[in-house]
């Protein structure tokens, strides 16, 4: 199946589908005419004598150097080869596919001036499974994601490296095996392909989708922890949250109420609670997780706009003029990535406190120490809680805003940069940590609820525990725990935990 894109109005849900499924993407044919019109204008300028940045001049600090028409193709090829300066591990294939789709959307707006052949090759590479090897580091998110996008473009001209049929090959060989031919770049085409925020945006979207999935799971494990701790559901009363008015908070409280509905554990102490108030990690879940959902939704709105934007330079405008600007500066993406990082950190931080509550016999309202069936002889989930604390702390360290860390580059021509790319890239590690934390909470909360037998949790949460127990068995006595934690983290990151509750209960990611 191939997803058809309508540049300027591609919804967030489509981008999420490309990320999770790796579907190939192509442009709707109605956009071909606009692409070809802009390409004709660039070809006209390239054949003339008037210097126009990026078409018949050098780049960056070298923009004052005029390039002869006969050297324009060489200029574009040299641009790509010289900018292939990425370092680090390759980005995951599904992220690269998303990046390629984002580049198609940008080119499809008809302001970049590339020939239709460029678009067709990008489409064919996705359809045939030729996935460029893009190193994860090297962009400061300013004059576009230059280095990583150069690695993508290098494959299109038969250079660089690509993955094809599970094998890492030279770019030209990968194209050949797929039955494709490299292109010779015309005027501005190399610049159009590497100028842009698609790598930063693709990474930020990946972080957003992963963070949202983990945040949904955190409401489920939070409800399960509430029941395991015999916590009160009174703080989730709808009037409390409508009186404040924040949508995320209102939605989170509604989710917690729905998840806890029908709990026998809750009904057993609803009129006789010994505690006047629960700790904040139980009582303030709507306020904390709800605020995080608001942040994620705000970031989603920014990233949906950016995904549909034209971010290269110069641009062919509606009056057929070609004007140099600064849409390649990824400041909006950097801010969105920082918002996602803060939300990711806080969802994990409050979840970790619930884990700590459940394993502490002084706080857990009658549960055995560390949720061990024979404490002392067994350590139970003691060190699982320590691991969650380590992951929480690591996320705190990574949550410092990247967007405030500018540094001048390119001989001070690019003297303020966004750092969006590594600000977004760090979300992959942070969301991996968050999924592991929520997985540990699932283990502790399920174990705690099982200790409340013969009292049972709600029907919705019983489904969650049953699904969890298909991948991790109840802890009867100490055992080798690492596989359990890995399986629980995957249970969260794969979406299996969120999918185990009735559709429509969990807050959606509204753009």
Automatic annotation (TrEMBL):
GO terms for biological process: L-histidine catabolic process to glutamate and formamide; L-histidine catabolic process to glutamate and formate. The keyword Ribosomal protein does not apply. CDD domains: PAL-HAL (cd00332). SUPFAM superfamilies: L-aspartase-like. There is a cross-link at residues 142-144 (5-imidazolinone (Ala-Gly)). Its main location: cytoplasm. GO terms for cellular component: cytoplasm. Its EC number is 4.3.1.3. Keywords: Cytoplasm, Histidine metabolism, Lyase. The modification 2,3-didehydroalanine (Ser) is found at residue 143. Coiled coil: none annotated. Pathway: Amino-acid degradation; L-histidine degradation into L-glutamate; N-formimidoyl-L-glutamate from L-histidine: step 1/3. One of its GO terms (molecular function) is histidine ammonia-lyase activity. It comes from the Bacteria. Belongs to the PAL/histidase family. NCBIfam families: hutH, PRK09367.1. This is Histidine ammonia-lyase. The gene is hutH.
């Amino acid at each position: 199946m191939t997803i058809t894109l309508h540049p300027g109005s591609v919804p967030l849900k489509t981008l999420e589908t490309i990320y999770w499924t790796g579907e190939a993407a192509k442009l709707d044919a109605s956009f071909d005419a606009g692409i070809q019109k802009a390409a004709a204008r660039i070809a006209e300028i390239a054949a003339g004598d008037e210097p126009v940045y990026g078409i018949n001049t050098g780049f960056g600090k070298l923009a004052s150097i005029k390039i002869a028409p006969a050297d324009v193709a060489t200029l574009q090829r040299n641009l790509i080869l010289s900018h292939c300066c990425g370092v680090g591990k390759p980005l995951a294939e599904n992220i690269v596919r998303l990046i390629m789709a984002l580049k198609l959307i940008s080119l499809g707006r008809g302001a970049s001036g590339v020939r239709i052949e460029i678009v067709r090759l990008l489409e064919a590479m996705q359809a045939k499974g030729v996935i460029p090897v893009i190193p994860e580091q090297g962009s400061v998110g300013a004059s576009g994601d230059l280095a990583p996008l150069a690695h993508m473009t290098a494959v299109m001209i038969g250079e660089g490296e690509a993955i094809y049929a599970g094998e890492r090959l030279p770019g030209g060989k990968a194209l050949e095996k797929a039955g494709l031919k490299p292109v010779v770049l015309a005027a501005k085409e190399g610049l159009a392909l590497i100028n842009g925020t698609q790598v930063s945006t693709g990474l930020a979207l990946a972080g957003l989708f992963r963070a949202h999935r983990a945040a949904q799971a955190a409401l489920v494990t939070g409800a399960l922890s509430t029941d395991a701790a015999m916590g009160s559901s009174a703080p989730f009363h709808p009037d409390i949250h409508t009186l404040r008015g924040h949508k995320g908070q209102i939605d989170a409280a509604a989710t917690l109420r729905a998840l806890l509905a029908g709990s026998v554990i809750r009904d057993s102490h609803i009129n006789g609670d010994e505690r006047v108030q629960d700790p904040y990690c139980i009582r303030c879940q709507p306020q904390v997780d709800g605020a995080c959902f608001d942040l994620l939704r705000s970031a989603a709105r920014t990233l949906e706009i950016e995904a549909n934007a034209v971010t290269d330079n110069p641009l062919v405008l509606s009056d057929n003029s070609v004007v140099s600007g600064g849409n390649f500066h990824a400041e909006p993406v950097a801010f969105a990535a920082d918002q996602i990082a803060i939300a990711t950190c806080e969802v994990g931080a409050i979840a970790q406190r619930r884990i700590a509550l459940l394993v502490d016999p002084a706080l857990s309202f009658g549960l055995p120490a560390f949720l061990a069936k024979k404490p002392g002889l067994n350590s139970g989930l003691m060190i699982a809680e320590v691991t969650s604390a380590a992951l929480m702390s690591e996320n705190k360290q990574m949550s410092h805003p990247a967007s405030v860390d500018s540094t001048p580059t390119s001989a001070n021509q690019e003297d303020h940069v966004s750092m969006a790319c590594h600000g977004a890239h760090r979300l992959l590690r942070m969301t991996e940590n968050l999924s592991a934390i929520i997985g540990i909470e699932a283990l502790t909360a399920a174990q705690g609820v099982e200790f409340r037998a013969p009292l049972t949790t709600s029907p919705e949460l019983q489904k969650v525990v049953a699904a969890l127990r298909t991948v991790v068995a109840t802890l009867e006595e100490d055992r080798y725990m690492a596989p359990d934690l890995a399986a629980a983290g995957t249970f969260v990151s794969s979406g299996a935990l969120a999918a185990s509750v009735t559709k429509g209960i969990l807050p959606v990611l509204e753009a």
